[in-house]
UniProtKB/TrEMBL annotation:
<dbReference type="GO" id="GO:0051301">
    <property type="term" value="P:cell division"/>
</dbReference>
<dbReference type="GO" id="GO:0005737">
    <property type="term" value="C:cytoplasm"/>
</dbReference>
<dbReference type="GO" id="GO:0006310">
    <property type="term" value="P:DNA recombination"/>
</dbReference>
<dbReference type="GO" id="GO:0007059">
    <property type="term" value="P:chromosome segregation"/>
</dbReference>
<keyword id="KW-0229">DNA integration</keyword>
<keyword id="KW-0159">Chromosome partition</keyword>
<dbReference type="InterPro" id="IPR011010">
    <property type="entry name" value="DNA_brk_join_enz"/>
</dbReference>
<keyword id="KW-0963">Cytoplasm</keyword>
<keyword id="KW-0131">Cell cycle</keyword>
<dbReference type="Pfam" id="PF00589">
    <property type="entry name" value="Phage_integrase"/>
</dbReference>
<dbReference type="InterPro" id="IPR010998">
    <property type="entry name" value="Integrase_recombinase_N"/>
</dbReference>
<keyword id="KW-0238">DNA-binding</keyword>
<dbReference type="InterPro" id="IPR004107">
    <property type="entry name" value="Integrase_SAM-like_N"/>
</dbReference>
<dbReference type="InterPro" id="IPR050090">
    <property type="entry name" value="Tyrosine_recombinase_XerCD"/>
</dbReference>
<dbReference type="GO" id="GO:0003677">
    <property type="term" value="F:DNA binding"/>
</dbReference>
<feature type="domain" description="Tyr recombinase">
    <location>
        <begin position="106"/>
        <end position="278"/>
    </location>
</feature>
<dbReference type="GO" id="GO:0015074">
    <property type="term" value="P:DNA integration"/>
</dbReference>
Amino acid sequence: MKKTTQETIDRFFEENNQISSSSTERVYYIALQQFFDYCQKKFNTVKKADVRDWVLHLEEVTGLEKTSINQKISALRSFYSYCDEEDFVPVNPAKTIKLKKIDSSEEPKHLTVAQVAELMEISKESKRERCIVQTLYVTGVRISELLNIRLSDIYWDSGQIFITKAKNHTQRYVFFSIDCRERLKNYLANRTVESSYLFCNRWGTPLSSEWVRRCLNRYSEFLGYKITPHMLRHSFAMHLADKDLEDYYLQKLLGHANINSTKIYTDSDEEEDRKDYERTE
């Protein structure tokens, strides 16, 4: 019995193990619905020219950014790769459709607030990965600083983390939100490995920065835009700056050794820092 386009899409999501979360499924589902609404053809009659025409439409008519277009192309390629493996189509029309090249000068240096929210949503299927993403973003710490956080460095009641392994051998406190605190506690309560480190591997030693980067690369492929640990740190700073926080406050949170990195306007004590931080949540 021949399947309809919708039945095939549903089966694709049921059987595709690469789609690891409901949010990723929604992203792909929307892209596929948009393609078939535009194409007005049954899935097994689509030609390569139809895919190219749709991509051109996305570029010239909708005005989408290349990263968003790449996300939709990835969804279509994944769907037709599945159809090809299952012999649902005579030929894979998306196989040779290439992603749009993005010049390094075009790549964003930080994520938008909406992109951060999307990343938070897609990563919540893994308690540890969601906590890594959220802690990087809400604290603005460097990846090396994150992976050296010990449980004894965390002050749960005041919502602070003492960064002892900072760049240039400096030390500082960073804040984390109430939501981050609750997720960290839940993650630790369900962790089966005994370790003094906040984020550890199966042997109880700190995760490697390469492991975290591979994790973020996986989310990058799903979402269609670049994500790195430093981009999350930069996003933290940019989003706080957009809320008119003092440069000096940012310098303290980011641990900048060079005073010229953030222009100093005023100083404030720890209590005022905390109030400023809470107003940005």
